[in-house]
Amino acid sequence: MINKIVTTMAEAMAGIRDGSTVLIGGFGSVGQPDALIEALIEQGASGLTCVANNAGTGHAGLARLMELGRVRKIICSFPRSAGSTVFEELYRLGKIELEIVPQGTMAERMRAAGAGVPAFYTATSVGTPLARGKEEREFNGRRYVMEHALNADVALVEAWEGDRWGNLAYRASGQNFNAVMATAAELTIAQVSRIRELGEIQPEHVHTPGIFVNRVIHVDRGPDWA
Amino acid sequence: MQPFSRGQMAAKLAGDIPEGWFVNLGIGIPTMVADHVPADREVILHSENGVLGMGPAPAADKVDPWLINAGKQPVTLRKGGSYFHHADSFSIIRGGHLDLCVLGAFEVAENGDIANWATSENDTAPAVGGAMDLAAGAKRLWVMMEHTTKDGRPKLVERCGYPLTAPGAVSRIYTNLGIFEVVKGQGFVVREMAPGVSFEELQAKSGAKLHRPA
């Protein structure tokens, strides 16, 4: 019997190696897999390349992981935000590498990775400093830059509900980066607010088919998120 | 001289959006446009984080923690609205499906170049977000901004000094002093001036030649 549901964070994090590329889902606080990030902090892997839209805020979650010196490089679209002081300090001291990627290019690079597309061309960033050093090509009279797929070792995502086959469904704006990242990693780990029986999530309502998901763990976010 | 207030700028811009357009409003002042779309006009708002048909902010006791906009503020969904993931959301943007995007800017050049994400080449930790995708991808890009910087330097310029967000993308600009079309091969054409502003004053506060409408 296939059962992707794990009950401890130690099982959820098992096998994540030093030097891994880790995709961290969510946009703002919505769909941000907080419990999995905390578990990764506990687990101890270091020399990580983290991919997330922002570079962490405050001193918890991704910011904490960086503060502990466990992140070698961050790939994101918007590192500077209210409370991103940990990242800014590390960056100023040259202790963390930054790859800045337009948000749509970041999403598309992961979709490409999940779809087996090694690279693609986009008009985004043409004529800007972010196109520097990238191959450019003209199609139908418009210039495009080549971007590479962004494959990862691990994806940490949050969904609203999941089942033992790994099928996931999200709430409201909670799909965001989660549904894309789930397709782009070798090992996708999902924290979910509700565990469902097989078939309980209507097949038409599955956003991320279980084939993309390796482990599912129940995390109760409390009544505010119910 | 009576410069337009931000509310007036937003109202003027909103009045120029026809029924049925799909529109993305950038973070900051452009967000105000949503409050000025006439009630009888259906304009569908898109948010980068996977929302189409975005509605106004909810009452304090009706906040859904799973529903925010690109500025990470709680919002609502209108009837007919939909949710999707980031790659599809940026397909909407990059695939040329949005009729209009409204962004703020540091500078706009007379050839339509826009600079709105970094103020120097070696900015400490620059942040681009979705600005380059929106500027390159939407069918139209309108800019809403103050006419000059806080210390009085013009933001309408011949060539952008700051790193570009996208080349040749802007077609219209709404400032506190006027409304301008960016016309290919010509440059900034004045469409409207704030009450009591003379063409000469407007020209003096601009870093590129302004043209009177034909």
UniProtKB/TrEMBL annotation, chain A:
InterPro entries: 3-oxoacid_CoA-transf_A (IPR012792), CoA_trans_fam_I (IPR004165), CoA_transf_BS (IPR004163), NagB/RpiA_transferase-like (IPR037171). Belongs to the 3-oxoacid CoA-transferase subunit A family. Pfam families: CoA_trans. PROSITE patterns: COA_TRANSF_1 (PS01273). It comes from Plastoroseomonas hellenica. NCBIfam families: pcaI_scoA_fam. Keywords: Transferase. SMART domains: CoA_trans. It comes from the Bacteria. This is 3-oxoacid CoA-transferase subunit A. The keyword Metal-binding does not apply.
UniProtKB/TrEMBL annotation, chain B:
Coiled coil: none annotated. Pfam families: CoA_trans. InterPro entries: 3-oxoacid_CoA-transf_B (IPR012791), CoA_trans_fam_I (IPR004165), CoA_transf_AS (IPR004164), NagB/RpiA_transferase-like (IPR037171). The keyword Transferase applies. It comes from the Bacteria. Signal peptide: none annotated. NCBIfam families: pcaJ_scoB_fam. Belongs to the 3-oxoacid CoA-transferase subunit B family. This is 3-oxoacid CoA-transferase subunit B. It comes from Plastoroseomonas hellenica.
